Amino acid sequence: MPRLFLIAFAACLFGGATPQRAAAQAGKPVSFINDVAPILKENCFACHDAKKKSGKYDMTTYEKIMAGGANGEPITAGKPEKSDFHDLMVTAEQRRMPPRDKGEAVPKDKAAIIAQWIKEGAKLDGGLDAKADLVKELRVRWKPPVPPKVYPFPTIVNAIAFTPDGKQLAVGGHHEITFWTIETGKLAKRLYTRAERAYGLAFLPDGKLVVAGGRPGQEGDVRIYDINAKGKTEDGVNVLDGVNDKAVLVKHLFDVEDAVLCLAVTPDGKTLAAGGCDRAVRVFDLSEGLDKAKLVQTVENHADWVLGCALSADGKYLVTAGRDKTAKVWDLKAKESVVTFPEHQNIVYGVAVKADGSAGFSVGADKQLRTWKPSGEGKQVKNAGGHGDDVFKIVAGPKDAVFATSSADKTVRLWDANLTAGKVLAGLTDYVYAVAFSADGTLVAGGSYDGSVGVWKVADGMPVKIWNASPGIVTKEKEPEPKKK
Ligand code: HEC
Prior knowledge:
The chain has 485 residues and is mainly beta. The protein has helices at 7-10, 19-25, 32-43, 62-67, 84-90, 108-119, 134-141, and strands at 160-162, 168-172, 176-181, 186-192, 197-203, 209-215, 219-225, 232-234, 237-241, 249-256, 260-265, 271-276, 281-285, 294-299, 306-311, 317-322, 327-331, 336-341, 348-353, 360-364, 369-372, 380-384, 391-396, 403-407, 412-415, 421-425, 432-437, 443-448, 452-457, 463-468.
């Protein structure tokens, strides 16, 4: 299983104090929303949400928590010892919550917070509606941390994009996008984001940056930033606060309950598509400007996560890659599914489409890239091996003259539209998750699991620069020869 699905865990290592502990230690009354709800979300919601309701017990609002399930009210205010709700967490009996065969006991210090809350009257915080959805409330209240000045360990690069002038590389970091001057490999700008990770980056024709991403398992979002806004300067680096500064964060397109994993924008900047863990791709019409951005369609065409998406230049066709082992084509005008391409028979990680919509491309865990007809029966035209491991992404260069793929085999490779193999771009030392062309098509870049990024010339495959794009982390510079095919 590729590490794509394990990366969520690394996030915890960046640390940070948990708010519930802070409150309990300060001797303040326990707050339901700040102290109790996060514990329930962590330990109980998996079985007691609005969908599963184990024991007919839905715990996702205060009102429902107090009402209880099949056996009625589980909380006696003021008396934790007479409240099943708490008792079931700490009991030595066989019947425990979570059930013994299903999960670890609630940690003692957390169960103590629940007991204290019940003792203090099991109250709801003032100003909070008893019917408010707790998952949503917790998400809204959550505040992103300021990214560390110096990273404790390298970031995982899931998304990259060249700035429109081709001079800098924008890289998805930890709660920020970092911008690096390609010539020197030096950090030039930091854009703080609510999203912990960026999975998709795209520049609009006016130079604004669209970022798709989120916190795995918690939330996902697409937000748009003016990276030319005035920030502050710290140690010669331009710092933009995309979390709080309205001059930087110019548009909040949407939020969802889990990470947004892919992003596509038509060259005219009028149509934007983004999809992810909720299996849906949201399509926006930006033709009347960001203020009037309109959600025009929510396409639910896959049975599992949408891992990749691409749009034909006219915004008519949406091509998607699914963890359900298929690539698909959706006609946005007719609002219908037109092709399902099943040949990978394994996870499809990435897709591309010719600008005129005349050919579809997909890559996946079968280590193949495949091109196929995005209409009729969706027949495969050709497949190509070459990558020795999972292929994560495929992107089209300007005018479809060249395509680039990135792979777990640590390389970026170039291809023509007939999948004739071109240069193999070497020099990265881990899984290459991200790949992008510069706007003029002369440069191609790859971004890797170990934080390193590389920029190469498309014409001869020579490396321009390879460096680690994690602030404060310096790796020894090496610029090896590209492997000859
Ligand atoms: C892995 C699934 C799972 C998790 C996690 C879980 N529960 Fe349960 N819970 C159940 C099932 C199944 C039942 C019904 C069977 C039973 O009552 O023993 C239940 C029943 C209950 C009941 C009794 C409801 C009634 O009225 O009959 C309470 C109270 C309860 N759970 C509290 C909790 C709390 C508090 C947590 C978190 C600390 C939690 N549960 C976590 C599966 C789970």
